[in-house]
Design brief:
By secondary structure, chain A is mostly helical. Chain A contains 12 helices and no strands. Classes of the chains: A mainly alpha (264), B mainly alpha (267).
Chain lengths: 264, 267
Amino acid sequence: MKSELYDAIRYYLASSYYSMKNWFIPPFQSWFFVVQNMLSLSFMILTITIIYSVSSGIAGWSYFQLLFLSVLSQLTMSISSIVVIPQMLPEMLREGQFDTYLIRPYGRLTLMASSTGIASYFFSFFMSGIVILAYISVKLKLQPAALLGFLPLYVLGVAAFTMFVAVLAVAMYRFFKSGAAMQQIERVIWNLSEYPLNVYGTVVEMLFTLLVPVGIAIYYPSQAFFGRLQPSYYAFLVVFSIFFIILMYKIFNYLMCFYESGGG
Amino acid sequence: MEINIPGYWATFRTTLKAWMAYRVDYALVIIFKIGLPLIMLAVWTAVFLNTNVLKIGGFTLTNTYSYFFLMSLLSVAIWSNIDYTMGTDVRHGAIVSSLLRPLSYPLVVLSKALSSWVIYFVTVAIPLLIIMSFVAHLAITPYTLYLFAIEMVLGLILINLLAFFFGTFAITFIWVDPFLSMTWTVESVLEGSMIPLNFFPAYAQHILMLLPFPILAYLPAVTLLGSVSSSVILKGIYTTALWIVVMIPLVYLWWKRMYKRIGSIGG
């Protein structure tokens, strides 16, 4: 078991290494990704700036706190892309492009992450967004100790969210044999996660915490960072995240059993 | 040059059939497409309640509701998937087999885009417009409908030109889905679907109204809401028409340049 995990990580890192090397080869590709991330970030900041310039903003959230939440949302989407690009997976499965991967001696999740994840997204975000995140943290006078509460929940939340996205992408293949809706679904989840979940009402907040783990990946870790999360609720979210990851892992493997070779 | 009308008509019909084959998937696209502006509706409601004022940027909370519901309608009334189609064609090598046919590739992708647009327009946009005309207190008169129709036509021409231009980036970069998402984000701010343009500072509003984007969302919405004067709407229409006249030859020359760069390893 230990050796299997070790082999899977080694295989994944080797794939990511070559994915990253590819990132540097075409002359414009790398800067293209960086510029597009910077533009997305700039327009996100512009939207929040406009909101706070014409109004008092959202109750309980200062300008920089909301900015932190929005940038964290983009960071989370970039990290998730290291493992799975949801638009790409249903297409790959439908066209039988997974055949050549399945003959390799690794688990389905490892194979999927190695074939559809693109590590360069995260690197592009890192070059464009991490400076803004650090600047906001300084502006908010956040103490390094706040990271202790934030990081464990965030790591688990991102893992839960990534597993959810992978399951959703495979479910699209299983039930519709198409993934045209994935880009639109991802866009809605992304836009929704840029703002505090409580603005959408209790039902949506519950839904996007317990069913779609945007809450445990972005909203609640931010609350923990600002010291606004009750310890009992924090403990519940940690336990729930672990349960969610295991459940999604099982569902992912189950749905992948429906993969039919396309001869590719 | 002879235009192969039956060829484009066949492309149009084939796209309709493909849509029927994956109808549940496309129904999801529609649901999430019209749901997207409602996120900003929730955000602006929270902002109004927290600010405790009657008007922001000249809009009451009721105006804001109507505005964002109209954004849902416009998201399926003025849109194009040419960029996405071109991205997929280039990635799969299908662009090469398309170029071998006795059809112009730009017109093929336009036929496909118009086919998808017709489905969205007939099944979603028109019913939504009828419902909204009863519940959203729209200022619908023959004149506003006439202006709205002109804006729709100009908006469609413009969005297809823009989408075609962005789609050509796939020829160089192959995987352009994240880039396309970025262009949608930028467009959604500049066209006013994230924030009504009258919420921007006055100087920014003047600059934004000189750009081609307001015709894609803000102008049709305020036309139906009756919240700006006819002169502002007409000025917006003339500005967009001018942009289209300038963009058509530029996009054509750009395509001629990018066409020479198309490569494939067998499709």
